[in-house]
Amino acid sequence: MKNEIAENAKQEVDKILEQVKQERDEIVLKAHLLKADARDEWHKVDKQWEHFKSKAGQVGKEAKGASEDVSAAAKLLGEEIMKSFQRIRKSL
Question: Deepest of 16, 64, 72, 73, by most Cβ within 10 A of its Cβ?
Answer without folding.
Answer: 73
